Amino acid sequence: MSKLGDVTLHGTSLSYPFEIYSRGSEFDAVGAVYAFLRRMILPNGNVIYPEILCTGQTDSLKDSISNHEKWLCVSRNGGNCIGFHRNDSEKSRLAIEADLAASNSTRCNSS
Q1: 69: Cβ contacts below 8 Å, ≥ 6 apart
Q2: Cβ count within 10 A of residue 9
Q3: What is the DSSP string of the chain?
Q4: Statement: residue 1 has pLDDT above 70
Q5: With the C-alpha atoms ordered 30, 32, 36, 37, is the resulting torsion angle positive or negative?
Q6: Which of 41, 62, 77, 109 is the least crowded, having the fewest Cβ atoms under 10 Å away?
Q7: Which residues contact 29 (CB under 8 A, 6 or more apart)?
Q8: Distance CA 7, CA 65 (A)
Q9: What distance in Å separates the CA atoms of residue 89 and residue 94, rounded to the nearest whole number?
Q10: pLDDT digits (tens, 9 = 90+) for 56-82
Q11: What is the average pLDDT value for the chain, to the nearest integer?
């Protein structure tokens, strides 16, 4: 895995730390909330994540990410990295996913 950094994604009620990895990274079979993001490096060297393209949750990143059904939409919209927030509780992952969805317009979740 090539870790690019960390970012905090904001829901309506809480904020969540996400580890950011390059597209094409392979993951372990861990439970997590994930986000496909567009990553930009500004001329001054700062890194920003201007758009969350798709969010979801899984009990196994290894099984869910490599063949994800939203890759085509993510690619068309400039998605170039994946973030994940490790969490073993499905109930908690679903709540975090809903919180992020309520606060962010994720164009690939609905397409």
Answers
A1: none
A2: 22
A3: --EEEEEEEE-SS-EEEEEEEETT----S--EEEEEEEEEE-TTS-EEEEEEEEEEEES-HHHHSTT-TTHHHHHHTT--EEEEEE---HHHHHHHHHHHHHHS--TTT--
A4: no
A5: negative
A6: 41
A7: 60, 61, 62, 63
A8: 19
A9: 9
A10: 999 999 988 888 899 899 999 999 999
A11: 92
Task: Provide the token pair at 102.
Answer: 């309520």
The pair of structure tokens assigned to 16 is: 């969540």
At 20, the pLDDT band (50, 70, 90 cuts) reads very high
Q: Give the length of the chain.
A: 111
User: Taking the alpha carbons of 88, 91, 97, 103 in that order, is the dihedral positive or negative?
Assistant: negative
In which residue are the tokens 């201007």 written? 50
